[in-house]
Amino acid sequence: MKPFTRFAYAALLVPMVLSGPLSSSVLAQESKPREAQINVSGEGETAVAPDMAILSLTVLQQAETAEAALTANNAAMRNVVGALRERGVEEKDIQTSQFQIFPRHEQTDAKDGNSDPGKIVGYQVSNALTVRVRDLSKLGALLDQSVKLGVNEGGQISFTNDNPEAALTEARKKAVAQALAKAKTLTEAAGVKLGRIIEMSENSVRPMAQPMMRMAMAKEMAGDSVPVAAGESTYTVTVNVTFALQQ
User: Fold this and answer.
1) What ranges do the domains of the chain cover?
2) pLDDT tens digits for the chain (247 residues)?
3) Which CATH code for domain 50-162+213-231?
4) pTM beyond 0.85, yes or no
5) Strand order across the 153-160 sheet
6) Topology of 37-47+166-205+239-246 in CATH?
7) What InterPro entries would the database entry show (predicted)?
């Protein structure tokens, strides 16, 4: 046999020798039994009285020219913001959320299947505010005063808590307790023991915004302060927990 041939033959033997122990290790890992597990979920709720309201207030003005519509809108909005400030709403709690200027077109019938926007007959300016009201006892009077001063489009009103962490913490505790109780019931019925926690995750749900009447409608009953019922804010937490099982 030639020297080169012997070297090539030896090189072929090397991977064959090394592959033995590696294959055994892989087989040992694949044959290791999977740890028995159980996955349960729990839900906890906490209802608390809200301490803050978030309002969406819009002033909409129309005029023949954009300048006239803007001037009217600015005047009305200054009055609204001034009234909010006078009633204790801080500057940091008043924020412009939307501002629009767009033309108003004359309504015309479509000809030959082609839509015709018609000539411009005026302009419309819309200015929206997001307002945080931290003193709920003033909420009805604020809405009433805002409508009288120029707010004529409604948005939404939502009640919330400035710092909801305490409510969420209580809801988390309830959710975990429910998940643990459920896991114990299942394992006792199956005749196995509950082991360590392998994995845990949570999902929290905060109160949703509630629709608010259109301010144009509220303006019709502006003789008295708008009645407002805050109710309670419900915070919900769902947890998913994976436990190991002991035979």
Assistant:
1) 37-47+166-205+239-246, 50-162+213-231
2) 555 445 444 444 444 444 555 555 555 555 567 789 999 999 999 999 999 999 889 999 999 999 999 999 999 999 999 999 998 999 999 999 999 999 988 876 666 666 666 788 899 999 999 999 999 988 888 888 888 888 887 667 888 899 999 999 999 999 999 999 999 999 999 999 999 999 999 998 877 655 554 444 444 444 556 667 778 889 999 999 999 998 7
3) 3.30.70.2970
4) no
5) 94-105, 120-133, 52-63, 153-160, 210-211
6) Translation Initiation Factor IF3 (3.30.110)
7) 26kDa_periplasmic_antigen (IPR052022), SIMPL/DUF541 (IPR007497)
